[in-house]
Amino acid sequence: MSTVIIGILPQEKMRERVLAIAKGEYKPEPTEPKIWFTSMRSLAEVLSDDNRALLKIIQETHPESISSLASITGRKPSNLSRTQKTMSNYGLVEMRREKNQVRPIAVATEFQIFA
Fold first, then answer.
1. Which residues is 111 bridged to in the sheet?
2. Which of 17, 20, 76, 94 would be 105's cystine partner, CB 3.0–4.6 Å?
């Protein structure tokens, strides 16, 4: 599993960057972050100690569903579902639909942060 590179930019700077990319004025380097947060606070909320531990559990146990993950962690499925959706929106977890279930897959458990 590779290390995910995360960047932190204020909302206005992020908007300027995205517009420059869209206009062809700027081409991101392959080594630049693919995941961005607008503040260290928002990053800390998503990558809290509990959520990093959850990513590690997902990586180690390969749960078949959110219900299975709930049994492993002792957390409520509704709580896990919200957390997984947020982490999925940032590209930290892949939510793979298999049969009648959604299987969480950890994309990374190690992070490099650029502010």
1. 4
2. 94
Q: Where are the alpha helices (DSSP H) in the chain?
A: 11-22, 40-46, 49-61, 66-73, 77-89
Task: Give pLDDT tens digits for 74-106.
Answer: 999 999 999 999 999 998 999 999 888 889 999
- Yes or no: say if 72 and 80 are a contact pair by the CB < 8 Å rule: no
**Tokens 């930290």 found at:** 92
Interhelix angle 77-89/66-73, rounded to 10 degrees, is: 110
Pair 16, 25: CB distance under 8 Å: no
pTM above 0.90, yes or no: no
What does the DSSP assignment read for 9-33? --HHHHHHHHHHHHTTS----TTS-
d(CA 29, CA 39): 22
